Each structure stands twice: as structure tokens, then as C-alpha cells.
Automatic annotation (TrEMBL):
GO molecular function, one term: ATP binding
Gene3D superfamilies, sorted: 3.40.50.20, ATP-grasp fold, A domain, ATP-grasp fold, B domain
Alphabetical keyword list: ATP-binding, Ligase, Nucleotide-binding
Protein name (Swiss-Prot/TrEMBL): ATPase
Ranges for domain ATP-grasp: 121-315
Cross-referenced InterPro entries: ATP-dep_AA_Ligase (IPR052032), ATP-grasp (IPR011761), ATP_grasp_subdomain_1 (IPR013815)
Organism of origin: Dyadobacter luticola
Amino acid sequence: MTRPLTFLCISTYFKGNDFLRACKEAGNKVYLITAKKLENKPWARESVDEFFYVEEKEDGRYNMNEIINGLAYVMRTRPIDRVVALDDFDVEKAAHIREYFRIPGMGQTTGRYFRDKLAMRTKAAESGILVPGFSALFNDDEINRFIEKYPGPWMVKPRSEASATGIKKLHEASELWQTIHDLGDKRHSYLVEQFKPGDVYHVDSISYNGRVIFSWNSKYLAPPFDVAHGGGIFRSVTVPFDSSEDHALETLAVDLLKAFGLKHSASHTEVIRCHEDGKYYFLETSSRVGGANLSEMVDASSGINLWKEWARMETAEARGDNYKLPPVRKEYSGIIISLTRQEWPDMSVFNDPEIVWRMEEPYHVGLVVRSKSRDKVIELLDRYADIIQRNYHASAPVPERPAH
């Protein structure tokens, strides 16, 4: 192909600058579709050839017919070779665009496995991967059979929201039914799942030609649901290398992504190890880089920037070239993030040499630390959590939808 490839990126949220930069550095043309209200965010403008801004509807969604019509006009003179969704909320939009314009990449059927929590659980269970008991909310008798089979507590979850948004934990059948009735005509957009107490992990991967070529396992010290609903402090740390945990998580993620048919993408998979039986259960996955700055934590320990390598890999695949992962470092890292009472908290108290990244956002404190010793990483995260809890921490009610 003599002309440069054109990548159309979509992001409902302000994220993915590293992807945009690496995509441009690889010699591609880069277009970005994003919300009009994000126009003034500090995008990597030098790496974007053209921005397309979309006015969101009241519920935060885009009018896909308008987007298709707009792109049809653009494509009269500017062909688009690849479409990349930079956030969970964009997976369906990207799949829709690919299918409509017959652009290579993940279609709507596969895309649903990475967006719809009911589709992903059903497919995982069919593929022999352990999942907590779950049920759609379509049929009353089916829900009652689920309640009889799986004692509470239960989690009611939206099928297509990201993070811990919109999730409710319920203990009594009457409470569960009330929640279902309160959903009214929207209940089909939710599912109910057995609550399994346990340790929650995340596996951050890159797949190329249908094979997982990079996989990094970490454990939440405070699970996202607890942080969102209990006002906790978000923390995660690398899993011990070559441990039984490490091998079990990698095996589950590889089996899952193969079953779901992921060809070329970054992915972020969440797994719970149940306290009761010690087994690993699939919770959910997504075909994008993990949120909450987890990419900075993965980069600190492995030397692999998930955003950049995803862009490099997508470019190589589109050109028919071979992609090779850079050498991987094996050190331990951890991340801690909290909302703060202060707009710009004084960070000078955090001055250990292990700190490799600092968050620069108002009303937030965030740090990534790196060490050859996992114990050292945990010791620092524990100490920082105490300082943050005493002097900085603030909590906010969990929104119905994530804030931009």
C-alpha cells in the first residue's frame, strides 16, 4: 500500500493519547471521533490529522445514523482502513462502522462478547470457563429458579456499562425483586449474578493474530466495586511471578480470549478467586486498555506501554507486516488512586525513590511505584493509603453513568 493507512479512532472519554501518538509515529493518518464537550481537553493534537466532534443525546449516547452519514461523506475522498475503539462505550460504535463500511476488524457479534455482560457470561460458560451463577432478567420463573439455586447476596448489573457503574448488591429475595420491578421497562438491559466473596484480579493483555502475545497479572488490594460504593482507596499490585496465581490467571485469560475470538487488540479481563473453594471465576472482559491508569502500572513493571504497543500491532497487522513485542521487564509495581478534599493536594510527602508516576488531575492523588521486591511495593501502598486516608481522602456517590 503506497498511501499511508488511515486509522479512525473513537473515544467517548478523554483517553488514549499514547495510542494516538504511537499510531501517528508509525506513519498513519489519524482521525478521532469524540464528544463535542471534550473538544478542549488536552488531546495529542499534533498526532491527530482531523477531529470529528459529535453532539451527544441526553442519555450520553451518539446518533449512529448521523455518524454513518458523516463518515460516508468523508470517505468519498478519504478512505478509512481501520477503526479502533479506545473505550468500552465505543466498542459497539466501532463494530457498527466496520460492518457498515466493510472495514476489517471485530464485527458486532464478537464485539458483543466484550461489551454485553450477559453475552460474555453465556459464552464463557458454554466454553467451559467457570463463572458465578447468573440469570437474565427476561423471565420471572427463570429468576425464581436462579434465586432457589444460588442463595444471596446477589449483584444486579447493567449489561453494557463499564466499571462499577449501576451495580447493586442485594441480600434478600424481596429486595432483589423490588430492584427488578424498579427497573421497569429497562430490566432486560440488566442481569443478576451470584455474589462470590473473593480476591479480584485483572489480566491486561495484547492479542495478535488470535494469540495472546502479552499478558500481565495484577491483584486489586481494594476491588473497584468496594471503592466505588464504599468510598475506598483504589490499589492494585503485580501478582507474584511464576506463582500458581500467575499461571491460573494467564491460563483463564488465554482460554477466554480464544473462545471469544479476539484477533488483534488490547484487552482487560477481571477474575475472582473465590474464598470458599479457591477456584478462579471469570467476571468480565473488554477489548481495550484497562482504565484507572492501570496501563501506567503495567508499563512500570513490564516496560510495555499497552496503548503504544496496541497501536504498533494494529499498524503492522493492517500493513501485512510482522509485529514483534519489545523485550519484557519483570519487576513489581503497584498503583494507588484516591479522590481528595483538596483541588491540588500537596504531593511532597510522597518522595520515595520507588515512585515512577504521579497523577496530575484536580481533586485526585495517584502514584505508581516500582521495585524488585513485591513486599516493598505493598509496604509503600499500605503506608500511602494510611497517609491519604488521614489527610486527603474524599469519596463521592457512585454515578448512574461514569462521568466524562
